[in-house]
Amino acid sequence: MSSSRRVPLSVLDLAPVSAGSTAADALRESTELARTVEKAGYTRFWMAEHHGSVTFASSATAVLLGHVASHTESIRVGSGGVMLPNHAPLMVAEYYGTLATLYGDRIDLGLGRAPGTDPVTAAALQRTSAELRDFAQDVADLATLLGDRENPGRDGMRVRALPGEGTKVPLWMLGSSLGGASVAAALGLPFSFASHFAPDAIESALEVYRNRFTTEAYTAQIDAPYAMAGVNVVCAPTTEEARHLATTADALRTRIQTGRLAPLDPPGEDMLASLRGGPRLPRAERTDGRPSFSAVGTPEEVVAQLDDIVERYGVDELIVTTYTWDPALRRRSYELLGEAWGLPRH
Predict the structure, then answer these.
(1) Cys-Cys crosslink for 41: which of 96, 152, 172, 343, Cβ 3.0 to 4.6 Å?
(2) Which Gene Ontology MF annotations are present (predicted)?
């Protein structure tokens, strides 16, 4: 199926560490990836906060984004996202306000309320409440701190984010359930749904977001609902190669599900079977008529899958994430997809 509506494509990166490499290697490769996808015409390069993980090196997200922004010129750079209960809103406003002061209107601030780690590490981070009401208040405080000094949210707020005040860094609400959708709607913010790892709730979440969206809150930053969906992608010149490379991502999912985290495994069916304790199962296909949020194949096959997602869910943007053991093949995957999608190369 083809679509005449080509929504923007963006990239979600977690600075994955491949087996046999180091965290320093992973950070260099993420920087090179940002430069590659900027040239390929992608809209955003987001990095997600994770802690205590041997798989991902993106714990100090704001530091990494400053590095990436300094090595790129035009692509939007942002968090996908900051796990807000881990941080004081004032500190987040200072960090991202500083980035905006340095790099202008290229910075996005995506916000989530998951811990982004295991319970022990979460406790060490001295997390505040992740209850929905408290989270929504923290988001509203962030909007106030990043807004003009004279704004309705300032009543009773005695602190200021300097730098940060007046930068109006765009806020995004992230979510994998109805909670994030309801907060995004109530505060008038764009919404990015984590369908790349929690696809089953996307229809109900988007329905809540669109039906409840309001611009009446002083935090509102857009005039109408704007939804983005996450998709796992592995793109290669042939279907067979793409499926072979995707065994790395399959192994990552198995490791996450079983709590056996490790750097990204090299591709191979034998490796995947050993992790699963038996023969490799055929790649899971949806039987309910809904498109999958894991697109693996040639550029044409992946584009057809993404077209299905855009048509079915009416999303305004897609954010794709790719895991391959070889970082060069990860960059190639994004380049092949960008060309097939018709992105304007820079």
Answers:
(1) 343
(2) oxidoreductase activity, acting on paired donors, with incorporation or reduction of molecular oxygen
